[in-house]
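Just wondering, does anyone understand these tokens?
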Amino acid sequence: MAFQPIVNLSNGTIFAQEALVRGLNQESAASILGQVTDESRYRFDQACRVKAIQLAAELDIQSILSINFLPNAVYQPELCIRTTIETAQKCNFPLHQILFELTEVEKVRDYAHVRDIIEHYQKLGFKTALDDFGAGYSGLNFLADFQPDFIKLDMALIRNIDHDKGRQAIVKGIIQVCRDLAIEPIAEGIETEAELAVLKQMDIQLCQGYYFAKPSFRSIITDLPLAPH
């Protein structure tokens, strides 16, 4: 696992550390996920959760721990979450510090099933997020069916937003929907000061990207300057 911080602009602190899967020789997430099959999906998803929590405990992560999960790997929410809870308890990692990001490496097959997963996780006290919003298969119809605690604006929407009126209009619209539904937006993939400046004007508080820090392999970045560079 590599960890990349999500920054809270309001106070310059680290809101969360996202656990990102990597190979033992730091191979990319895409190269690892490309090897996941229908037969191995469940075991892979469970192994990633366990490793993320174990490392978070070893590294003494005090912020939120963000864990990606594959919705098609969760066949029964109440059963599939048991290993996560047992691992957190064994590692003394607080459950309320865990955020699950629904990632769409593959198309969601059953929206009602995803709603059940998110609702079950929320009832247990976990925070939830919809990753890569605005790309892939997710969209506003997703939010009409269920409301996660956070949505992460896809980096394709953020890239060059400082001089793209179309992207600016779309992101403004998404932010308004989030406010109406009491969902907190997170902007990911920020790489330049100009992109960040536009997002600040839109009053986005939670941000992530190379502008702040690149993923750190089996380690975490704990301190960020109030004015990132």
User: Anything to note?
Assistant: The longest strand covers residues 13-20. The chain has a mean pLDDT of 86. Residues 50 and 87 are 6 Å apart (CA to CA).
